[in-house]
Design brief:
The chain is built from 23 helices and 29 strands. By secondary structure, the chain is α+β, with helices and mostly antiparallel strands. It has 3 domains: 1-239, Immunoglobulin-like (Sandwich), CATH 2.60.40.1730; 354-629, Neutral Protease Domain 2 (Neutral Protease, domain 2); 642-800, Zincin-like fold (Alpha Horseshoe). The strands form 8 sheets. The chain has an 8-stranded mixed β-sheet, with no helix packed on it. The chain has a 5-stranded mixed β-sheet with strand order 16-17-18-20-19, with helices on one face. Strand 23 (507-514) and strand 24 form a beta hairpin. The two termini are 59 Å apart. It binds ligand BES and zinc ion. The site of zinc ion (ZN) has 4 residues, from helix 3 and helix 4. Its EC number is 3.4.11.-. Residues 47-232 form the Aminopeptidase N-like N-terminal domain. InterPro entries: Aminopeptidase_N-like_N, Aminopeptidase_N-like_N_sf, ERAP1-like_C_dom, M1_APN-typ, Peptidase_M1, Peptidase_M1_aminopeptidases, Peptidase_M1_dom, Peptidase_M4/M1_CTD_sf.
Length: 801
Amino acid sequence: SYNICSFFLSSSSPHPDRIQLPRNMIENTTNGKRFPWAKNRLPSNVVPLHYDLILQPNLTTTEFAGSVQITVNVIQVTWNIILHSSGLNITKATLTSAGWNQAKPVEVLEYPVHDQIAVVAPDALLVGQNYTLSIDYSSNLSDTYYGFYKVSYKDEHAEKRWLAATQFEPLAARSAFPCFDEPAFKATFLIKIKRDEQHSTLSNMPKNVTIPVAAGIVQDEFSMSLKMSTYLVAFIVANLKNISKETNRTLVSIYAMPQKLGQVEHALDTAVKLLEFYQKYFHIEYPLQKLDLVAIPDFQAGAMENWGLITFRETTLLYDDKTSSAMDKKLVTAVIAHELAHQWFGNLVTMEWWNDLWLNEGFATFMEYIAMERTFPELQTDEEFLKLRFKTMMKDSLNASRPISSAVQSSEQIEEMFDTVASLLLMLKKYIKHDSFQAGIENYLHNHSYGSTRSDDLWDSMNEVTILDILSLGFCMIECLCVLQITNGTLDVKKLMKTWILQKGFPLVTVKRKGKSLYVQQERFLRSVESENWTSDASYLWHIPLSYTTSNCSSFLCPYAYLLDQKSATIELQEEVKWVKFNVDMNGYYIVHYAEDDWNTLINLLRTDPIALSTKDRAHLINNIFSLVGLPTDVMKTVFTAGAKTDDGWEFLLSMYTSSVSEAEKHKMLEALASTEDVRKLIWLMQTSLEGDLIRAQELSHIIATVSQSLPGHLLAWDFVKENWEKLIRKFHLGSFAIQNIVTVSTFQFSTEAHLLEVKTFFESKSEKISQLRCVKEAIETIQLNIKWMERNLAALQQWL
Ligand code: BES
Ligand code: ZN
């Protein structure tokens, strides 16, 4: 995977929310005059409506000239227009208005600390009026991968060529043209590019006309765009080749270097199919007449969703039957699915500010899987999604995890959040059912097309449809209400989701079953408890959409749902069941722990009737139990014991035993090792412990105790004691706790006259002193009691059985 965010944060521009200036620096411009605006965010008194942009990049000198005309509307009377500009050499600025008879020159103040300029108007700018600001400027093409940048590549004749392209997200549009570079300032764009005759250009919109402007220079003019954010503007000057296909009045093209045109077919088919899928899924047509997907020969990010002109790394777009693997195919498909989802979620409806980027990216990541599952089921990407959840929850169970909605800290943390968000959306989708979820998204996109939103807007749009949906259920009203746990007739998606977005980590749900009652309880799950925060964890409370299946699951309500919005609750089953499994297909973002009996039942089920559970449920149980091996340690032994049943598992556990530094853990491992039914291994364990090197001798009584608990082991343990008696009493003197223990545990299972005789004779044969040991007497008495018990109960017992 590609680390988009290291790119995001290592960009030369600082993160917009995090700059703190020394007081005395505020408001000083490059020419020493007072800058009229001290904030990082632009004022909202003037808003852009339209940009006319002409660019002339020179790929040889790497300079570019630009000229922009911005039509703005005044919301509040002002003398200044504050906008963004970064590293641009402004040569001329004028302002015009319908009421003025000619353009007036204006002063431009620059404040590089905030990447801002202030245009000082000759008169007060009046509310409701439109003005057009014209700025001529020049700059250099960037030699990073950010802004309006140039890269070189070798063409089909191995000759070095230059290409200019853009990457504006998040804050680099301002380095290509003066603009209101915040996502909420949407406007229309009319872009013209002057170029050498031998090059060609691409931009968000289709090309309208090409006109000659000077010797060897022509100008390409693109259609006017729809209302869009600056970070989505894009243009490319290059010599790329393409193949195209039309679908539903949109021309889809894949562009690559001419010698790589043979590798673009997969991308074209995929993009067409996915474009069709999204239009149906969102019930909103893709609004542009063309969609270009371009493989840039040198590209920092994985891909970028510029509206109508998506840019990719070559490895995320090109696919070659001869050299690409199945995984490569999945990657290409996933990246296309992701960037196409952004054409709606991000481009049509845009986050108001970067603090909600997690929603944009999280949603695109989520849609990536939904779209692929529906469009390319053969790729089995639902399994990839399950893997993603395993990975994400692993990270989120660390103390270092942080809430999704918090100031971003490091690149990795932002990236992890996208995956968490995707996983949470899946949980929501499964809970409110797919149709409601889809209707909620559709509602959201319709409500906010060409606008900007905060994350609350999404949950509100969801709430609108979930309420409607519930009211229209009618016939199953009562059951559905109790299933969904709707209070006051509404299912509050917002309230539910906030508990997941604002708190860090995720919950551990403990299930205890008694008859028909399931007692469920939640707490924060942490993989290691060294934290000082552990005590404050009592305050964590999630609204958890629990899902569960049982051995009797057949009704239409199955899998069952229950919203756990308290610390604990009791769920009443309709009847007693053999087993119950929570978090169906691991669609929920929580981990489950059962009482030991229920774990054993599930483990047994896995062994005896594995297909009673879905593949995902099986994978989940295994993943779940391994995660638990780290907080509640009472399942650790169960896990080790299950693992030690195979030869490989036993060997592996032994190697873990020898390297473990935790005595508590070693103890459990040893018990698991000694619970094997393989006689040779049991003998080896007892002997090795008696020697005391690999396994210390202090563990021997414990090993013998475990060995003698099993059917094949109890005779073995006694034989071992008999054979090694001299060694044992040399090592642990007579009367020691170890000897007492060994005598007790190696004999307490015997219940026949023959064994009584054998034990008696053995100890008597040793010495008077030994046969008088209290532990020996106790052992003999225990065997006698066992014999009596058998005489009294065996017949009855056999009858019952
Ligand atoms: N919009 C992002 C790229 C981005 C995010 C650039 C934030 C700058 C700031 C794009 O949609 C994306 O997510 N790209 C990924 C690949 C994707 C398939 C996960 C990338 O570049 O790694
Ligand atoms: Zn993205």
